[in-house]
């Protein structure tokens, strides 16, 4: 059997490096250490550079184009964040180093904790969770620990509005709660009657996203919180959409008891592609003792001679450790840099411009794409991607066709309560020009849908590969074409 060609660029004898002549005697590799030699491509340095550069250019990313992926806040990640994260004292630090040798790093974490508390209006915070969904899980465990600590053992229900992100019911049921759905009213708010009808002494809490995933501010948020509190439950805030409130509203002032932040959304640390995120969780005073450990605290304040001393502590009734070491420190450095660069007023302008951009874009397309709820929006809005006079066209076809115009598709088929949903979040980092270009593409596609629907059905046409069977691509992933028979 001839070996299949696994490296198309390989050419026998071609090399990328030349080793200097050996100046030590040759020895045989001991049998127990010898492994099958893996086939390696024979290529020159420029072959390698071109190969990987070309591959990197097949990726669509925020650095190459507009990325209006609703609920994901794909804002530009300022490069200064990366400079900070690569400073040797930050990039090369080891999590097992003695506390006294990492005081600067702990100070950074501490200061970031203080800033997040100031931004959100909470009393305590953990930086541990690895991402938003992990933060939800931690927050729900804190709610559970709180009720159990009071001997309130019958609270088994977690209330979740039907517009919620899928991670909300997932985190709740992973924590052992029964998920109970709450309806949305005709204005896109939590339906108060529906909420009242499920509130009783079995309610552990409600998971609320504000602005909700329809991009709308919950107009009765304080009433919602009051109803849940009167039933003895706590209110969890899904803070993934904090971008819209930044510097304007503090969730802690709205009746939220525990909330996760998404540093990788609101605070511009990169995300997507399975890279690390960071989902700190803020809590009100009465939940501080349940936070996971370790938490960074200032153990000794600064004196005239000495800087403050920071340490890692375990809260009194901690739910335990939920992440190795101290969480994703590199993400914290990036968020710290971002907040430091903008300052309080800058953060407020981020929130204002995120909302302005979304409303501007919405106004350009709303006569062509039906709005799910015709209200001014917050940082994002949801339209229906279908028309009566183009019956074969679905949101998916519009999303795919946008790729031909070199735009990343919006989130689609979410939230679940909007048929053929297209959820569009421009973020504050886009210019009027790019919003206009995107709106024009959407309007053009609406026209194509009626005049030449097949063009949308076959899209994308200009991408490296055409339309995928997405289920098969996810379930039947082939990453390696050939493994040598004697590979161990
Ligand atoms: C992104 C998001 C989450 C989950 O955050 P991850 O970091 O992706 O786990 C939860 N809720 C909402 C509304 C989100 O947009």
Bound molecules: pyridoxal-5'-phosphate
CATH class of the domain at 79-340: Alpha Beta
Indicate the structural class: alpha/beta
Average residue-wise pLDDT? 94
Largest sheet: 7 strands, mixed
* Strand element count: 13
Tell me the radius of gyration: 26 Å
Any idea what the CATH architecture of the domain at 79-340 is? 3-Layer(aba) Sandwich
Order of helices and strands: HHHHEHEHEHEHEEEEEHEEHEEHHH
Distance between the termini: 20 Å
CATH fold call of the domain at 79-340: Aspartate Aminotransferase, domain 2
Tell me roughly what share of residues is in helical segments: 25-40%
Give me the side-by-side strand order of the main sheet: 1-7-6-5-4-2-3
**What is the tally of helical segments?**
13
- Tertiary shape: globular
CATH superfamily of the domain at 79-340: Type I PLP-dependent aspartate aminotransferase-like (Major domain)
Strand content: 5-15%
Low-confidence stretches: none
